[in-house]
Amino acid sequence: MEQTLKITNVLSDPTRYYIYQYITKRHKDVTVQEIADNFSIHPNVARLHLSKLEDVNMLVSETKKTGKGGRPSRLYRLSDDVIQLHFPYRDYQLLAKITMETMLELGEEGRKALYSTGKKFGRELIQQELKRFAGTEKLTFDQKLNILKHAADMSGFHPEFDVNAEKTIVYFQIYNCPFKEVAARHREPVCNMHNEYLKGMFESLFHSIQLVEKQNMLTGCDACSYQAFVGN
Question: What is an example of a GO molecular function annotated in this UniProt entry (predicted)?
Fold first, then answer.
């Protein structure tokens, strides 16, 4: 409870909250000066905000040389610690572990059900987004991409998207895995389920889709990286 109160107190400051949101979208280390410049505040004030976030384990920092001479810079990045606020107490992570291990004990049929359910939830997410439109037939490629981006943001992926000039390949990176703690124990089934979840999202928007995983953060990469070959 004491840690919970500290976290809520730290995030009650609007500037500090938006600094944290900025860092979640930056996908790399930030400096005090960068935060000061982007939020039009004095570097000492920026340093104080960053230190407060580090005090409650929302950020971590380290000192690195810049290669330009002078004093080393202190760099800040998101912490890997999971922070959850529930009133009253809930343990959804334990429920996820129990559910996952139950599915795996069912063998191949359990895995098939897991992957099928993952794709179903991906489709349902996009269907919710499509309620704002008459249908997918008249949507442009850019509209479909924006729907994907918004859905990925809503899923907490902290994503980045890019496309080739012909608009036939979507490159995207996921910098936050919502299933990371469970995936650390059951990498193959969780990652396969997540891939099906993503396929469900794409298949709800495009006539054809081939999804290729290029990088996985559980192997030490900075992000999970994918290429999606799409037919509009």
Answer: DNA binding
What confidence tens digit (pLDDT) does each residue in 193-209 have? 999 999 999 999 999 99
Q: What is the pLDDT of residue 205?
A: 94
- State residue 69's pLDDT score: 63
184, 97 Cβ separation under 8 angstroms? no
Label residue 86 left, alpha or beta by phi (over 0 means left) and psi (-120 to 50 means alpha): beta
Complete DSSP assignment for 152-169? HHHTT--EEEEE-TTS-E
Q: What is the pLDDT of residue 65?
A: 74
Q: So what's the pLDDT on residue 82?
A: 79
In whole angstroms, what is the distance from residue 24 CA to residue 12 CA? 17
Q: Checking DSSP bridges between strand 208-215 and strand 159-163, what pairing results, if any?
A: unpaired
Which value, to the nearest 10 degrees, does the dihedral of the CA atoms of residues 203, 231, 171, 218 take?
A: 40
Give the Cα separation of 160 and 175 in Å (integer).
8
Query: pLDDT under 50 in the chain at which residues?
Result: none
The upper half-sphere exposure of residue 214, i.e. CA atoms within 13 Å in the direction of its Cβ, equals 13
Cα 181 from Cα 178, distance rounded (Å): 8
What's the pLDDT score for residue 134? 72
Structural domains in the chain, sorted by start: 2-78 (1.10.10.10), 92-231 (3.30.1380.20)
